[in-house]
Amino acid sequence: MASQLTINKVQEYASHLAKEDVENRLAGDELDDYASRLNRSLNSLQYQVKQHESILEKVIITNAAVGQLREQISVPSIEESSENFKAHLQQVQKATASYKSLIASEPTLPSPESPLPALLAIRRTLNLIEQTKRTIKDMQEKLLSAQAELRNEDQTFRDAQYLRQALEDRVAKLRTEETAQGSQSVNEIAAGLVLEQQLRRRRYAKELRNLVRAFNIFVAEDLSVMLAAEDLGGPVVGDALDLNEEALKSGFTQQGKPKKTSADDDKAEMRRLERNEQIWGTGSQSEAEAAEREFRDLVENLLNAAAQAEASSPYIVLKKENAAVRYLVRVKVAQFHPEDAKKLRLLEFGAD
User: What's the confidence (pLDDT) of residue 2?
Assistant: First the structure.
């Protein structure tokens, strides 16, 4: 507002002077020249006034921002800054004096006869030994892990080589058969397929007989004794391989160890027959024979149920859980029903 009033006054004064000068001294072309110069001066003054106003607005905005910043940040006064500087200077001077006093005095060291250096060396050596032991232990664990990984990778590599060799042999065989069949008639090809099927059946039958023979030997000579021992409260099948029928007759303690033979043979034999009757339902057979019979019956029932799985359920209902059942489940030959632990079935080995 003040700048605008100044401009107005300048304009009025210039107009007044122009009228007086024009009336007294100027005439014609001189009046026009004077008016143009006056207008240029007036425009220059207005431009300078606008620049001053713009600068003034910026200064006002800056002052307002500085005021808000001062309100948010507490700026210490000159007196407080001086006091803080003096306190810091005193701390530095005290520390400097302390260091100078320490430098001037000789360091306190143990005498040559003191055991302190030897003790420090021993402690340092012991620490290094402990660190070395821990490092060795960590490296051994890493070495074992690396060796196990190497074995797995080596086994995977060998399996891949075997698979590749088998595929190459199969491809070569198929190419040979294709070449041979290209020069044969349909009847000759059919006869060859029938012969190949017959040979395959004979080979499978022979392998099945060998497998059944090995199975019977294993059950009769090894597994039956271990199954009977587990049913009698002895070790789990596979934990003890040196059991015999004499140990089965005497029985086992609660800790699973064989009992000592009783002096009274008649009473011991009577208790043995009663025990066998309760466990296997027969006292006329030996413990191993009873366990073998029970195991064979279980396997036969499972095979029959699996063969009739399409017509009925593949599960059989168990009368009791014995060592034979637990053994088949443990070696992943059979499995319980997910909702009924009294039902058992064979695993589908050929299923995808």
Answer: 47
Considering the domain architecture, whether residues 286 and 162 belong to the same structural domain is answered as: no
Least Cα distance to 337 among 292, 291, 305 occurs for: 305
Give a yes or no: residue 62 inside a domain. Answer: yes
pLDDT band at 67 (very low <50, low <70, confident <90, very high): low
Helix (H, G, I), strand (E, B) or coil at 317: strand
Helix axes 2-24, 29-72, angle to 10 degrees: 170
Residues 27, 294: Cα–Cα separation, whole Å: 148
CB 345 within 8 A of CB 334: yes
CB-CB contact of 236 with 230 (8 Å) = yes
The tokens describing 9, both together, are: 């006054």
Q: Give the CA dihedral 332, 343, 215, 207, nearest 10 degrees.
A: -80
Digit-coded pLDDT (tens) for 146-179 = 999 999 999 999 999 999 999 999 999 888 877 7
Q: How far apart are CA 306 and CA 347, in angstroms?
A: 9
Residue with tokens 């530095």: 92
pLDDT over threshold 50, residue 263: no
Do residues 286 and 248 lie in contact, with contact meaning Cβ atoms separated by under 8 Å?
A: yes
Distance CA 319, CA 313 (A): 17
Same-domain check for residues 210 and 174: no
Domain, as residue range, for 48? 2-21+34-66
Residues 6 or more apart in contact with residue 272 via CB below 8 angstroms: 249, 251
Backbone angles phi, psi at 346, to 5 degrees: -75, 150
**Using an 8 Å Cβ cutoff, are 233 and 251 in contact?**
yes
pLDDT of residue 108: 66
User: Are the C-beta atoms of 295 and 289 separated by less than 8 Å?
Assistant: no
Its pTM stands at 0.44
Co-location of 225 and 271 in the same domain: yes
The alpha helices in the chain, defined as continuous H runs, are 2-24, 29-72, 78-104, 116-182, 186-218, 224-231, 245-250, 265-280, 287-307, 323-330
